Amino acid sequence: MADLRAGLIGLGMMGRHHARVLGSLPGVELVAVADPGGDVHGVSGGRPVEESIEALIGHGLDYCMVAVPTIYHEQIGLALAEAGVHTMIEKPLAQDTASSQALAEAFETKGLVGAVGHIERYNPALQQARARIEAGDLGEIYQVVTRRQGPFPARIADVGVVKDLGTHDIDLTAWVTQQEFTSVAARTTHRSGREFEDMVSVVGQLSKGAITNHLVNWLSPFKERVTVITGSKGSFVADTLTADLTFHANGEIESSWDAIAKFRGVSEGDVVRFAISKPEPLRTEHEQFRDAVLGKDADIVTMTQGMRTVKVAEACIESSATGTVVTV
């Protein structure tokens, strides 16, 4: 069987990594790339470098990866849908809910595979956490807490921290718990002098009773990517920078030392850091999308799921602007 013919549009910070993976993915031939600004990182590998999506489509693509700024997602995605090209779009799916819905409907109507690049779903630590939760290792899920903090990325100018980084935490929380957001309350700040928010704190309610808290900012001098999932049997701590997953079990041995018992509680149990395989999340993401295009069983982030994530993100922004709890 001939390799799938793939294209890539957007050769910036993320695009260069997509080019590396697509250029070495079994069963896929990266036939051409595109960016109006040219191949600034030198990732084309001698392949044609086009300036527009129309020229890229002209190479007879089976599927395409879109890694352009968010404000262009709808325009480029609709062009690919019209041309009958299966497509994965970097997160967030689009700049707002209406545009996200237009994309989801366009690909569904055409019978095409449409996906969103929410890469955190493919982090080995979260993949392990999701599988172990499904197996009942945490019991009933009580709470999800995420912290996603770091310095300001000068390359992001068309959306704020909620839609750029916060959508990671919205998506992974809904996915790892298999629960949808039903309401959010959020506060944002604008400290860097930009148009969009650069810091957010969110409290959320999920559909099966779990509560969430998300701290996201572009203003910390250190980088942190941590997810803590607490259930009736203990807690998982996933560090997605190192892809480490640690389990803190609720214990069954009470302490006879009263002062320590009061300080630590009476349910502190074993702590285990799992030894897990750590494939590159971006490569796993592309392998799953390739398989979906081939009609195989695959775990992709659908455009409908991506639209729901954008909807929750916009609810966070609305909550901050109005000072109210917003129902999703």
From TrEMBL:
Any Pfam family the entry gives: GFO_IDH_MocA
Any one GO MF annotation of this record: nucleotide binding
Record's keyword terms, sorted: NAD
Presence of keyword rRNA-binding: no
Record-linked InterPro entries: Gfo/Idh/MocA-like_OxRdtase_N, Gfo/Idh/MocA_Oxidoreductases, GFO_IDH_MocA-like_dom, NAD(P)-bd_dom_sf
Gfo/Idh/MocA-like oxidoreductase N-terminal domain span: 5-118
Domain spans labelled GFO/IDH/MocA-like oxidoreductase: 127-236
PANTHER family to which the protein is assigned, alphabetical: BILIVERDIN REDUCTASE A (PTHR43377)
Protein name according to UniProt: Putative dehydrogenase
